[in-house]
Amino acid sequence: MPAVTVIIPSYNLGQYIGETLQSVKDQTYKDWECLIVENGSTDNSKEIIREFASVDGRFKLIPLLSNVGVAAARNLAMQRSLGKYILFLDADDLISPKYMEEAVAVLEEDPSVTVVYAQADRFGTETEWDLPAFDMGTMLASNCLYISCFFRKREYDLYYGGGFDTAFVNGYEDWDFWLSFFESLPQEPNVVQLPEVYFHYRTRPDSRNKGVSDEVLKEIRHMLWEKHKALYSKYFCDPTLTVEYRRMERAFLKASKSLGWQLRMGMKELLKK
To answer: In the chain, where does the domain assigned CATH 3.90.550.10 lie?
Structure first.
């Protein structure tokens, strides 16, 4: 069995996926398999993947007739993965040659480590990336782990196993995935960041997360809060329990009982009609 399974969901990224697969093939660590879930692309993606697979049997194409989305595609590949360690990789991103070797070495040396990831940069339409260091408080406020981190499949199967939530259709399913995984653990996650830049995140004008509006992001944050209330409560208090909120609530109730307030509300209802 391979030591590492690389999982790549693919949909109409033929202009990039060859470069991504080559970055996997160029790894100094050789004991891996790469599962590419092809979501019914209409471009030349399948042909490029098949070409890699025909030359190197470690590349394995999982063809689908239609686009099931990145969450479902990753879940499908997880079910078929054989590796001791898992690495998710998007079909347009790149990893440096030593990423796998260095990450596996950390996981092999220290069984307490939950996740290993590297310093990272951006390239493409945007190059700046203010990626904060990991801690759980920061992670709950803003996702500070990209999806291409290494973790143990056994730990995932033992404690979580739920996969990616397909309800996150507008993005940030990776944020929810890490929160769900960490929440399931019997102890605090031990996350190690390699000091070198080994992950390269491609930014495109049509990137999915780039198109997320403030309103949709607010909905996503609400979904995360509702789903992970227990985890959030360990680091943040419920805002409805704060003194400030209670004061505002009392002020609102007091104001709502006044004649002036009732008249204003009555006028607004009349104007709506």
So the answer is: 4-235
- pLDDT of amino acid 245: 63
Do the Cβ atoms of 49 and 38 come closer than 8 Å? Answer: yes
SS in 3 state form for the chain?
Answer: CCCEEEEEEECCCHHHHHHHHHHHHCCCCCCEEEEEEEECCCCCHHHHHHHHHHHCCCEEEEEECCCCCHHHHHHHHHHHCCCCEEEECCCCCEECCCHHHHHHHHHHHCCCCCEEEEEEEEEECCCCCCCCCCCHHHHHHCCCCCCCCEEEHHHHHHHHCCCCCCCCCCCCHHHHHHHHHHHHCCCCCCEEEEEEEEEEEEECCCCCHHHCCHHHHHHHHHHHHHHCHHHHHHHCCCHHHCHHHHHHHHHHHHHHCCHHHHHHHHHHHHHHC
Q: For residue 209, give the nearest of 187, 2, 56, 201 by alpha carbon.
A: 201
Beta-carbon contacts of residue 123 (< 8 Å; ≥ 6 apart)? 200, 201, 202, 203
Q: What is the pLDDT, as a whole number, of residue 233?
A: 86
Q: What are phi and psi of 39, to 5 degrees?
A: -85, 50
pTM higher than 0.90 = no
The pLDDT tens digits of the residues spanning 3-42 come to 999 999 999 999 999 999 999 999 999 999 999 999 999 9
- Was domain 4-235 assigned CATH 3.40.190.10? no
% the chain with pLDDT above 70: 86
Which tens digit of pLDDT belongs to each residue from 211-235?
A: 578 888 889 889 999 999 989 888 8
